[in-house]
Design brief:
By secondary structure, this protein is of the alpha+beta class. It has five domains: 218 residues, Histidine kinase-like ATPase, C-terminal domain (Heat Shock Protein 90); 128 residues, 2-Layer Sandwich (Ribosomal Protein S5, domain 2), CATH 3.30.230.10; 209 residues, Rossmann fold (3-Layer(aba) Sandwich), CATH 3.40.50; 141 residues, Topoisomerase II, domain 5, CATH 3.90.199; 73 residues, Gyrase A, domain 2 (2-Layer Sandwich). Helix content is 34%, strand content 22%. The chain has 34 helices and 42 strands. The strands form twelve sheets. Strands 3, 4, 7, 8, 9, 10, 11, 12 and 13 form a nine-stranded mixed beta sheet that branches. Strand 34 and strand 35 form a beta hairpin.
Length: 951
């Protein structure tokens, strides 16, 4: 339905777009507390802080229009839910606009898109919203202004600026000039019953910031207490000075460059920090003004290092991460993002310069801030500058006298690295210097059985060797690090990565695994957190641990628990990161080498020559790392379908969500992917599920005989084996009409539905299709110790044999059949031979290929190109194939045209073999067991009888 809203209505309807979130948020922030700045976990309402700032900035801006202003008085009464801001000096004129028949204060504070600052160079508010937003989000909003004894006006707005009183203009005895705004925030709109103490602490911090920017010419009071912050230096000292958690102040370089720029730079713990103001507005997310200052200092540092160490590779990010920059500047006509958190304004338009000359920076070396950065960058503890390894955060003490105490934390990717960096920032300076971090960005190579040449060419392994100071086959007394800590997701893929790292050291440096204290350890994080309705919490580090705990719950207590699954380390918040590292002993687990049996177990898990042994291991195991077997079992679950429905978990989840939504109108594949992830508790990569959905909709020759979803868009072609499908965000799909016929709605009540997170029903353990879909659509997959391949068979042939089975007749052997396939399929030992179709034209020296065999090369055109450019067998290639048909014309030399037809099948790879000896499927009648089926008729019989049994 199309609706037209007034601007006032739109602001109330979409407050997030104007003042930020109107709900409570919790995150670590700096707050003003007991006379100092404290970084702590804070619960506040961003929108409430924003409407307070709008009124405060009105008072601050008045200083720029009236330099005689020397007082700002702020009162916050939480009990009465009132906030007032009063400033002296010239205010809004008490005069009436004849053309509008309205007083100017009423216009400025009660009419949207009005402002006296539209053309102002250096004020903070220039949008025409400002104080009106405060008015709109208040139940009562009062303006009083006094210009002299003859001009005093008071006006009251109520009900979110929907109603206003008649302006009262009076005379008064005072000759003082002042303006006061008092407002009562609409607490119900902000989903709170009372302004919280953390919100007040943030408001007070903002007042302190304004006092610092205004300087000593303006006295600022909070609830009758005069602030002692009279300069930017005073303000910076609240962060860097000695305080309750630090006996000595941090080193700093402070420079007032000119009337419009003053800066301070100090040292930070392993991550760049900035606190900045533009025209007294706090740019909490920085911008070009911060980059402008930071770049000059970094350039000075890096150039100085290069002069002293011309061989050093100085990465600017490695210098920047040690900097804490404070900037206070005045910029002409500044432009901000909507919430004024970031300056979005080019340096060329600042209207002033902040040049930090070499003389300024050199003079500061004796006080020490720049000197310490230089010392750090040139010392042997700054090894990450020398190693030149991207994304490595090297421990400051790695490679030095305390290297044995250092730990290198290996993460899967960048988000996990960010979690580690956040957690480390809460450690003491002494402890922090002992930790390095390196993201692997994927799985390590399985080095067991790999050639030395292949290992040496692996970039990630070579980087690890450099970071640790390792060499192939060499024993070590001292390394750059004394320990390696593995920090992966607590899912099955994370277990696999963990196993690959252990495998690497066991193959290449086994003596390191036998060290005591242990060289290898892991950092475990929760995979699920459960919360009871009474607030009680439980944390679980593995799914078996969660399952065991759930089984012991009383039936009436089960629905009282809610669950949060941590699909990756990136799910954890800053507060959780702090908790992890402040309690590191709880999360750290050493890998202790017991005896050679441990080595045999690792060899069994990763030796490619022992798949049969791994099958036994998966059934009966006492493996040192019980987590690794969870990956292997899950790997099989994801790779090998159930016999009863022929579906893998990702396919079953997609089918469940498609049937549940009854998706009969087209939707984007990306939308269905997101819905399936949320609705079915899918815990793997989004891209993986999107790929599954695309394959379920593909209908080219060789894909599915009955595609369960309909393709709407470019879902891939036969010649590329579907790999040329468009991105999920461009594709549309919907449920196929045939799908509900295969998976009948009346069967739903018979299915074994599973419970997901928070006791919500998700997909069934398996579906019971009316015919064996595993034969109709086939399947293929490679797991751990197991693989499977089931050819596709004609739907008609499958149905005929079911009818024979129901009539007690003998079943007839079936030949694989692929929808639309124009080639031939003939039986051979252990399977079938499929052949494509070609036509020879001796006269024109051409071969026209009109069909490719089943399971042909996924990039057949690339193969033909090799025959043309490298083997010179083909002279010219013309490809007129479409998405659903093959038409490739090859021109050969007359000599090559003499090749026999059978040899053409071989030369052009137009013949393939599909096996019927590897039909391994999960057996629904057993627990976690994979069963080998000798023929498609075996699975058909089992499927039919199981369906009958369920009925």
């Amino acid at each position: 339905m199309y609706q037209e809203k007034s601007l006032h209505e739109h602001i109330l309807l979409r407050p997030d777009a104007y003042i930020g979130s109107i709900k409570e948020h919790t995150q670590p922030l700096w707050v003003f507390e007991k006379g100092e700045m404290v970084y702590r976990r804070t619960t506040y309402v961003p929108g409430l802080c924003k409407i307070f700032e709008e009124i405060l900035m009105n008072a601050v801006d008045n200083k720029r229009t009236d330099p005689s202003m020397d007082s700002i008085i702020v009162k916050i009464d939480v009990d009465q839910n009132t906030i007032s801001v009063r400033n002296n000096g010239n205010g809004v004129p008490v005069a009436q606009l004849e053309e509008k028949n309205v007083y100017i204060p009423e216009l400025v504070f009660g009419c949207l898109l009005t402002s006296s600052h539209f053309d102002d160079n250096t004020t903070g508010g220039r949008t025409g919203y400002g104080a009106k937003l405060t008015n709109i989000f208040s139940t009562r909003f009062t303006i009083e202004t006094n210009l002299n004894r003859y001009e005093h006006e008071k006006i009251v707005f109520t009900r979110n600026m929907k109603e206003k009183s008649t302006p009262v203009v009076t005379t008064c005895e005072s000759i003082d000039k002042w303006t006061e705004v008092t407002f009562e925030p609409d607490l119900e709109m902000f989903h709170i019953s009372k302004i919280g103490k953390d919100t007040v602490a943030l408001m007070e911090k903002r007042i302190v910031e304004c006092a610092a920017c205004l300087g000593e010419t303006v006295k600022v009071t909070i609830n009758d207490t005069l602030l002692e912050v009279n300069s930017f230096n005073d303000y910076v000292d609240l962060y860097l000075g000695a305080n309750s958690s630090r006996n000595d102040p941090l080193p700093r370089m402070t420079v007032k460059v000119n009337d419009k720029w003053e800066i301070c730079v100090s040292l930070s713990k392993d991550k760049f920090q900035q606190i900045s103001f533009v025209n007294s507005i706090a740019t909490t997310k920085g911008g070009p003004h911060v980059d402008y200052v930071t770049t000059q200092i970094i350039d000075f540092i890096t150039n100085s290092v290069k002069k002293k160490m011309n061989y050093a590779k100085v990465e600017t990010d490695n210098v920047k991460k040690h900097m804490w920059v404070f900037v206070n500047c005045v910029i002409d006509h500044p432009v901000f993002d909507w919430l004024k958190e970031t300056l979005i304004f080019p340096e060329s338009s600042f209207g002033s310069k902040c040049k930090l000359s070499k003389d300024i920076l050199k003079k500061d070396e004796n006080p020490g801030m720049v000197k310490q950065l230089l010392s750090w960058a040139t010392s042997k503890h700054g090894k990450d500058l020398d190693l030149g390894i991207e994304k490595l955060v090297d421990a400051n003490k790695a490679g030095g006298e305390d290297s044995k105490l250092c730990t290198l934390i290996l993460t899967e990717g960048d988000s996990a690295k960010t979690l580690v960096m956040t957690g480390l920032s809460f450690l003491s300076d002494e402890s922090r210097e002992l930790y390095g971090v390196f993201p692997l960005q994927g799985k390590l190579m399985n080095v067991r059985g790999a050639s030395e040449d292949k290992i040496n060419k692996n970039k990630k392994i070579q980087q690890l060797k450099t970071i640790l100071g390792l060499e192939n086959g060499k024993e070590y007394g001292n390394l750059r690090y004394g320990h390696v800590m593995i920090m992966t997701d607590q899912d099955h893929d994370g277990f696999h990565i963990k196993g690959l790292i252990i495998n690497l050291f066991h193959v290449m440096w086994p003596e390191l695994l036998e060290r005591d204290p242990s060289f290898l350890c892991e950092f475990v994080t929760p995979i699920v957190k459960a919360t009871h309705e009474d607030g009680k919490k439980e944390t679980f580090f593995s799914m078996p641990e969660l399952k065991k705990w759930k089984n012991n719950l009383l039936p009436n207590d089960i629905p009282r628990w809610t669950y949060k699954t941590y699909k990756g380390l990136g799910t954890s918040s800053d507060e959780e990161a702090q908790t992890y590292f402040e309690n590191i002993s709880i999360h750290k687990r050493d890998f202790l080498w017991q005896n050679e049996d441990d080595g045999k177990a690792i060899d069994l898990a990763f030796n490619s020559d022992k798949p049969e042994d791994r099958r036994t291991w998966l059934k009966n195991y006492t493996f040192i790392n019980k987590e690794l077997i969870l990956f292997s079992k899950e790997d099989n679950r994801r790779s090998i379908p159930e016999m009863i429905d022929g579906l893998k978990p990702g396919q079953r989840k997609t089918l469940f969500c498609s049937l549940a939504r009854d998706w009969k109108t087209e939707c984007k594949v990306s939308v269905l992917t997101a819905h399936a992830i949320d609705r079915s508790d899918y815990n793997h990569g989004e891209q993986s599920l999107a790929s599954t959905i695309i394959k379920m909709a593909q209908d080219y020759v060789g894909s599915s005989n009955v595609n369960l979803l309909l393709p709407m868009g470019q879902f891939g072609s036969q010649i590329f084996g579907g790999q040329d499908a468009a991105s999920a965000r461009y594709l549309y799909t919907m449920i196929s009409p045939a799908t509900r016929a295969l998976f009948h709605k009346d069967d739903d009540v018979l299915l074994a539905w599973m419970d997901g997170d928070n006791q919500r029903m998700i997909e069934p353990k398996w579906y019971i299709p009316i015919i064996p879909t595993v034969l109709v659509n086939g399947c293929e997959g490679i797991g751990t110790g197991w693989s499977t391949f089931v050819p596709k068979y004609s739907t008609k042939d499958v149905i005929k044999n079911i009818m024979r089975l129901m009539s007690g007749e003998a079943l007839e052997p079936m030949v694989p059949s692929y929808r639309g396939f124009k080639g031939t399929i003939t039986e051979t030992e252990g399977g079938f031979i499929t052949k494509g179709v070609f036509e020879k034209n001796i006269q024109n020296s051409t071969i026209r290929i009109t069909e490719l065999p089943i399971k042909h090369l996924s990039n057949y055109k690339k193969f033909l190109h090799v025959l043309k450019t490298e083997e010179k067998f083909i002279k010219e290639i013309r490809d007129n194939s479409s998405r659903s048909s093959i038409d490739i014309l090859l021109t050969l030399s007359r000599e090559n045209m003499e090749i026999a037809d059978e040899d053409i099948y071989t030369k052009l790879k137009l013949r393939t073999k599909i096996l019927t000896t590897n039909m391994n499927l999960f057996d629904p009648t057993s627990q976690e067991e994979i069963k080998k089926y000798g023929s498609p008729l075996d699975s058909k019989i089992n499927s039919v009888f199981l369906r009958l049994e369920i009925y």
